[in-house]
Specification:
The complex is a heterodimer.
Chain A: H1 2-13, H2 18-41, H3 44-61, H4 71-93, H5 98-108, H6 119-129, H7 133-144, H8 149-156, H9 160-179
Helix pairs in contact in A: 1-2, 2-3, 2-4, 3-4, 4-5, 4-8, 5-6, 7-9
Chain B: H1 2-12, H2 26-42, H3 50-62, H4 66-95, H5 103-118, H6 121-127, H7 130-141
The chains are: A mainly alpha, B mainly alpha.
Amino acid sequence: MEIQQSLFVNSLKEPETREEAFKRLVSEYKERLYWHIRKLVLDHDDANDIVQNTFVKIHLNIEKFKGNSSLYTWMYRIATNEAINFINSKSSKMGLQNQEWIEAKADKLIADPYFDGDEVAFFLQKEVAKLPEKQRIVFNMKYFDGMTYQVISEILDTSIGALKASYHHAVKKIKTKLND
Amino acid sequence: MQLRKLKLNLMTDFNKNNPFKIPKKYFQELEYLLTENTNVKNNLSTPKDYFNTLEEEILKEIYPEKKSLSNVRKIIINITSIAASFLILFVFNTFKTPKTMTEDQAFNDYLESYYLEDLDSYEMLSMIEDSEIEKIVNTSLIP
């Protein structure tokens, strides 16, 4: 697997094979990265912009990929950073805190044609949006994406213990709200 | 001893003789199902055929139709160079100062050429002054 990955990364770095390899990369990861981003920003158009920027960043920075982590986690890290940067820039332009901006997005979900959840699903999204940023990201990756703590730890560069604590706090807050 | 050998064989050949099979395209479908499940759980959806166009858009952004662009560039360069050469020709032909020749000059030229044609070398020398001849000889002698 590691050999396969390093061969693939080499083909991404070589000018002659780069384009073809990159097409394969986009084809393989576009959906996974899109959904990861979409869950963080909620809106389809925003997610579309961010996923495109993410692939552009991956393309521009592939030379810097040293292979210390898997290509998959490296790309997820870029996608996560791009999503956070996007939220930072959008919210600061509107004079809002990140959390306020995402809460506003969650409030609009009920009218979003690309959200087909019932009242409970809508309520859950609204409560997730109220979580502090780090807890919200961890909750999305663990609950919605079903990622292991090990993988989340590699992507977010955070210890497994800290992640478990974040997730625990997030679940507790949401449960309390659901019971109210 | 034989049992140990059998155990070893079983372990090394396990991958080759794996008795378990999976349905065709299982892993592709599994990935699809996993993605589907998480999306259902999340209640988020995308426009129809979004992922088909997404790939195209990303690649367009990264590789913006280099080939056709370079062809267009080549055509533009060719047209520009042809236009430039026509312009240079036009400018030279338009602004080139025409050789104006007065009637007197024309007549003198005509006369001179007439004389030179008919005169032999001695007669020509007789028409030139001595000082001029000296001057010509001296300059031709200087290496």
